[in-house]
Amino acid sequence: MNINEFLIVAFFFTGLGIAICLLAPIGFRLMKALYLFAFKHPKHLKKTKF
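^ that's the sequence the OP posted. Answer follows.
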């Protein structure tokens, strides 16, 4: 493995790591929103909860 291949692989994984760090919170928020939307409680139960 020469230095050029190593640099390409290193930059690829660095970029992938940064992308995961940026997209994970957005994806998590989206999954949470979809989960809450799909499994919404009836309104009369929601009032007693808070």
